[in-house]
Amino acid sequence: MKLATLPGPTPDGRLVAVEGDRCRPLACGTMLAWLDGGDGTLGAAEPFDIRDVLAPLPRSWQFLDGSSYVNHVELVRRARGAEMPESFWHDPLMYQGLSVFTPPTASIPSKPGWGTDLEAEVAVVTGPVPRGASPAEAAKAIRLICLLNDISLRGLIPAELAKGFGFVHGKPASALSPLALTPDELPGWDGARLHGTLRVDLNGAPFGRAEAGVDMIFDFPHLITHAAATRDLPAGTVIGSGTVSNRDADGGPGRPVAEGGRGYNCIAEQRVVETILHGDAATPFLVPGDRVKIDMQGPDDASLFGIIEQEVIAA
Amino acid sequence: MKLATLPGPTPDGRLVAVEGDRCRPLACGTMLAWLDGGDGTLGAAEPFDIRDVLAPLPRSWQFLDGSSYVNHVELVRRARGAEMPESFWHDPLMYQGLSVFTPPTASIPSKPGWGTDLEAEVAVVTGPVPRGASPAEAAKAIRLICLLNDISLRGLIPAELAKGFGFVHGKPASALSPLALTPDELPGWDGARLHGTLRVDLNGAPFGRAEAGVDMIFDFPHLITHAAATRDLPAGTVIGSGTVSNRDADGGPGRPVAEGGRGYNCIAEQRVVETILHGDAATPFLVPGDRVKIDMQGPDDASLFGIIEQEVIAA
After folding, report:
1. pLDDT score recorded for residue A118
2. Looking at the complex, does the CB of residue A312 fall below 8 Å from at least one CB of chain B?
């Protein structure tokens, strides 16, 4: 199924199964009710316009975001001359994020000094996962896959992380793609990773073309077992992959798309590479008027999840 | 109103207004529906047994826990010989926590090495708060007050915080008190802080008797404005005070209740004080069989929020 959420009687909206330009409502009403085991019987078909959607899961009980593409972490550290602990290749970085998600076309509020950035990610939505679940149990609990834009306020993050308790100000609400797909809808899903090119455009120009199935050191079952080490995960838990990031073929820091590289999925990474290569970051963070587009296409070039398309506005 | 949630058709339970040993269901069904503006019409009275309750808010969209009693933070730092940044007196520490809450009598799973600890806190539940809200707007948004036991796994926290992204493993689900009260039910609520003695017992003996209204450097409106600096807060946001902690009258690190002091609201703090005074921590963290009790009484010695009473079990 391809699931979307349309505006409804509550902020949780109205869950529908999308079939081309038509959709059919699920009897249980909302994505959360469906994940809790609610009635998935499909109602009568009605017209569907993808521009009307909310996030498929507008709010949930938990969002845990990993940093699976360790290349990204290593680059960021290298730029500031810090060694990356070897343990980062074995023990996932993960933070507890805000589990309220904006529609795919929500504007991104930004203030001078916030250093507003995108982070293009893959995310999964789980059913219930008991504490201490095995990777096999975790894999079975993956109900849906979607794309996610983890908005990051780089100007606020260093001071916030220095306090030692993780992100609050630095990570406002993320956006989700219009559609969340069950695994059977995705030939590129191998049960643990999503294979496909993540297409990120900035102001209409290609910015990132990384392969989501490559260089993902911790796959989703691994991230889920990490998340469930000391807690039960409720149905509706969203697990993010972290910014998708590929190593360059020669092990170097990669090149922009315009120079034949795979580009970057957040501005911070491009700035890091600029700093490594030229001693200075040239690409500015997002400012009002900037437009971000995140997409992944299937073999027929059609968008798999619909397009995240957001414009930055003054907060 | 004194609100409680009884088991119901979904994990969100069935919201009731408690009147002595009777209760009346709210028409909207759940705490989240009520906070979203749902119908608060009361139905017919039915018998109420406080031993049956879930958390008043079994799961929500967001839990942000502050560290308002800066004395606690300063003590912990002093024990390890670290200076506390002066900014900690002006800029609240806050982390994004797990917004799933256990019933007040849920057992606390623990493994050897986890260093399982309680943290007795006051918490508020908010209505919707827009980004950038003022302290006055924040104060008006406070809908309910309750007590909270923020379970902390001290054995896992140092390594987790060293990774830089805050808590996941170290902070499993917190427990809430049986009842959440509207401000008008609490003479000790001054609009920003709750005044009253937080009564924490460990294995039947008094462990903490701190004054919740004293030494709370950041009041709840301040914590809420901090939380809302870069994001809208959805109705149902839970804001924790952090471990309640009082300075000693002479500015010293305090004394156990048995020695005439106000005691401690987490074992870590008692261990810190033991380390400061004697060079070594004597009190062990919780082990299976240990019993924790958290309560606050009104002027008539009756429990205001019902009692959090949890036993530690082997995970």
Report:
1. 98
2. no
